[in-house]
Amino acid sequence: MKDLLEQLRRDRDAAARRAEQLQNTLNDLVQLAAKQGEELTAIRKMLRRRDAQLARAEREVRKLRRRLGLDDPDPEPDAAEVPDEPGEDEDTAPDDEAADAMLDSDADEPRNSHDGQEAQARPQKRRKGGRGSPPGHLPKDEERHVVDACGACDGDDLTSRDLQTSYVYSVVSSYLRVRAIRRARVYCKACGATTTAPMPPMPCDRALYDCAFIAWLVTMKFAYLMPLDRIQKMMASQGVHIAMGTLVHLMERATKLADTVDGEHMKQLRAGKYICFDGTSLKVLIQGERKAWDGYLEVFARGETTVFQFDLTKHADELRTRLSNVAAVLVTDAESRNKAGAPGAIFAHCNAHVVRALKKARKVQPVLAAQGLEFLDALYDIEEDARNRGLTGTDLAARRADGRPILERFERWLREIAESDLPPSDPVGQVARYYLRHWEGLTRF
Description:
Structural class: alpha/beta
Distance between the termini: 77 Å
Strand order of the largest sheet: 5-4-3-6-7
Radius of gyration: 37 Å
Oligomer: single chain
Number of strands: 7
Shape: extended
Order of helices and strands: HHHEEHHHEEEHEHEHHHHH
């Protein structure tokens, strides 16, 4: 027995050594493939640059031959082929080719013709491949460069011929600025009072940061998902050192400034005929807590108006404050928290929850689940037909005439399922009891 165990240990160690060797070999192959890929990329870029250099050399040779009278003049592509302003007439090159072409901006840049009539007569040519023009909405900084001497003989007796325009992408670095707000102070000769011009709008009294700075901070944090510590380092690289507590305070100030707009939107929602509402859990990191906190995010919407609200808990206290005295229709699910938070609202529940539950129940009860889905599919068909006929939500005659008989049969079917001998854990039985318990809200439509 000892010999057998010893043999098994030796086999195990040998297998581990072979696995380690295979892993090392695989790592070497991966590194070799990566190295070869980098070399191929470098070779491809070198070949493209060489082709661009050869094209420039050929153009210089043609210009020299024309200048020496060895060849008939053959004007190069003129302004009729490529517009002076960036447009959408050119094909867009692949990213790597476009990048190389931008680095080598004179690779195949068209020149303006000195013969305007010939330019109008020649039809436009559409280049295949190549780089596209920069978007027209980008601002342009124009530069002028002059020629001091002839490139062939160094002569300085030059005559202006035309302009060659090249477009390349550039960037203006993002940097912090200081606003010097100089306010006039005047002295009244009549009463002797001194008056100072008012400050422009600021986030608060004696503010050190203006609204544009706070808007930029919020955009970097939430639109581009940049943490505050990284924003702090970015500003420190420009010599601006702002404490982390100050940045957090500015974020809080931004939320208070948005409360007015947020409150107005919520007021508009409460004044309408209905409010669509739902909520979901949201993990939150709180300093000092050992694990993520289970927060809760709510969304209230109607049309284009949407309001988000966050709570640290799922209790209905804050919801009751937001929906107090609401008599509108609240379109939401049948969760008990929602009814406790809005006791005065009229509830319209979502049948999509029931559809999903019945589809999931087909694995256990395929026949009964299919029967329940037939009723709901018939109701959804009525809605689709109403949309095709252009009916609005106020045209209830067709919905009541066509949908009510289906609901009556559906209710009888639900009661038969709920009163049957199905076990309490049966998914179709649970759906039937749920629908009957919230019948009024689920049939509000």
